[in-house]
Design goal:
This protein is α+β, with helices and mostly antiparallel strands. 26% of the residues lie in helices and 19% in strands. Strands 2-1-7-3-4 form a five-stranded mixed beta sheet. It has a two-stranded antiparallel ribbon with strand order 5-6. The protein starts with a strand and ends in a 5-residue tail after the last helix.
């Protein structure tokens, strides 16, 4: 449950990231973020903990109480938008590849995946979007320092540089949490974020 996804909004209620429940609780406890509920009310850590004791739902058991798992958090001081260029990172590669080994096609937890250079570094392969894929430990071990063809492996999809933010792909999935939808729907987002005239 601590690794469940939580939508992160900037100060203008624009979605900027998806994080884990564990990280969301850290941000909430430190006062960097506030929880946003379905009625668009915001709560700091203390008020969210008090509310959690009154409402039943999916929660984390602590020594003294159960604290509800937040689904949406709002950063209190961050007002920037995500960069246009997608950062080349392990997490973004896993998201691009949908947590799926690009050789055997099995979808798995990120702890069971690593990154593989399609053209091995020992043969001049670069560490770029176009040469790195998610790979399970078994396929990575089987491939070793060889090309996929030499190892008898076939890529499910050629690696590529994403044109949009990887978390935007995550947000377009049909199984997203109901409380995320107002922030992802362009019409709703425009309604809540358009500048009002006096």
């Amino acid at each position: 449950m601590l690794s469940s996804p939580v939508l992160v909004l900037n100060r203008s209620y624009f979605p900027v990231h998806v994080t884990s429940v564990r990280r969301a609780f850290c941000l909430l406890y430190r006062g960097i973020a506030r929880v946003v509920d379905e009625q668009y009310r915001t709560f700091d850590f203390a008020s969210w903990s008090e509310l959690s004791s009154e409402v039943h739902g999916e929660g984390i058991q602590t020594v003294s109480r159960i604290i509800l798992v937040p689904k949406v958090i709002l950063l209190t001081a961050y007002d920037r938008l995500p960069k246009r260029q997608v950062r080349f990172s392990r997490m973004n590669i896993l998201i691009r590849d949908n947590y799926t080994c690009q050789y055997c096609g099995r979808r798995m937890n990120r702890t069971h995946l690593n990154l593989d250079h399609v053209t091995p570094r020992s043969r001049g392969g670069k560490t770029t979007w176009e040469n790195v894929v998610a790979s399970c430990h078994a396929c990575n071990h089987k491939k070793g320092g060889r090309s996929p063809e030499e190892a008898g492996l076939l890529l499910k999809r050629a690696p590529y540089r994403p044109k949009s933010f990887p978390f935007a792909t995550l947000l377009s999935k049909p199984n997203i949490h109901e409380s995320w939808k107002p922030y992802l729907n362009v019409v709703d987002f425009s309604y809540w974020n358009v500048e009002l005239e006096p």
